[in-house]
């Protein structure tokens, strides 16, 4: 078992390998993390782990809360995650490689990172200025019939895009080339589909590529059928991840 210890960045969203993640870092615990990452030599990866929050808050309250206005806001690296951060987080996350870490004049950071490798969360350490975690790196096994499943998922995904664009009365660009590697397909589609965090988390932690693709095929067919019956949908950028408010 290959393990690694990395800074931990909990989010209210799921990061997939290959997905670009923009971050607006303003909380002191994550500013401290970025300052530490900047100490890494430029020719080495500046890595941290992103794990979706199961039960807790991405941004810790900074003012007295409701309904008790006298309640003091939480402080420290695990603020907003309860007494046991390990239980507040999902078990599987993704390593992020920060290509850009830019400090602004006010001390906040603009970060652009990319998901690389899935990891399993083994333990969380809250003794420092920011959370760190011991992580087990997870291999990506292809599973049975991954290639054929990827072809089916891409066909269904194109239909899903067309239905989604039609329901929003928007045109869809067809110039972008979609990948043919089954694992890349599985992560791209998982990131692009409009689903809640528990569903995306289930896709992230699928045991192999084929299992993820089978799940996506069912989801795409079901979603396409639903969209077909709806006159319109709220605006949503299909292939863009929102910038985290940290």
Kindly describe this structure.
InterPro entries: Lon_prtase_N, Lon_prtase_N_sf, PUA-like_sf. It comes from Streptomyces rameus. Pfam families: LON_substr_bdg (PF02190). The protein is of the alpha+beta class and 246 residues long. 30% of the residues lie in helices and 23% in strands. It is built from six helices and six strands; from the N terminus they run ββαβαβββαααα. The chain has helices spanning 28-37, 85-88, 146-167, 182-192, 197-204, 209-228; strands at 3-11, 20-25, 47-52, 92-103, 109-125, 132-137. The protein has a five-stranded mixed barrel. Helix 3 (146-167) packs parallel to helix 4 (182-192), helix 3 (146-167) packs parallel to helix 6 and helix 4 runs parallel beside helix 6 (209-228). The relative contact order is 0.20.
| Multimeric status of the protein | single chain
Structural class: alpha+beta
H and E string = EEHEHEEEHHHH
> Taking strands numbered 1, 2, ... along the chain, how are they ordered across the largest sheet?
1-3-4-5-6
Helix content: 25-40%
Silhouette: elongated
Main beta-sheet annotation:
5 strands, mixed, barrel
What proportion strand? 15-25%
Pfam family, one: LON_substr_bdg
Organism: Streptomyces rameus
Protein name: LON peptidase substrate-binding domain-containing protein
């Amino acid at each position: 078992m290959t393990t690694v210890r990395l800074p931990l960045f909990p989010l209210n969203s799921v990061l997939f390998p290959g997905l670009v993640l923009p971050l607006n870092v303003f909380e002191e615990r994550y500013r401290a993390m970025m300052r530490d990452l900047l100490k890494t030599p430029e020719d080495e990866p500046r890595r941290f782990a992103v794990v979706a929050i199961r039960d807790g808050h991405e941004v810790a309250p900074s003012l007295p809360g409701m309904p008790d206005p006298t309640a003091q806001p939480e402080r420290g690296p695990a603020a907003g995650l309860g007494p046991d951060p390990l239980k507040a987080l999902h078990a599987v996350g993704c390593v992020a490689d920060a290509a850009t870490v830019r400090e602004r004049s006010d001390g906040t950071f603009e970060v652009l990172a990319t998901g690389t490798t899935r990891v399993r969360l083994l333990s969380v350490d809250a003794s420092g200025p920011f959370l760190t975690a011991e992580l087990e790196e997870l291999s990506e096994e292809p599973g049975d019939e991954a290639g054929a499943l990827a072809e089916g998922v891409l066909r269904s995904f194109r239909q899903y895009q067309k239905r989604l664009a039609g329901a929003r009365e928007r045109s869809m660009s067809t110039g972008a080339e979609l990948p043919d590697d089954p694992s890349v397909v599985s992560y791209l589609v998982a990131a692009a589909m409009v689903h809640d965090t528990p569903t995306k988390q289930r896709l992230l932690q699928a045991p192999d590529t084929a299992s993820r693709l089978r799940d996506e095929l069912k989801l795409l067919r079901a979603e396409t059928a639903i969209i077909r019956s709806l006159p319109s949908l709220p605006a949503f950028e299909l292939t863009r991840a929102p910038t985290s408010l940290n």
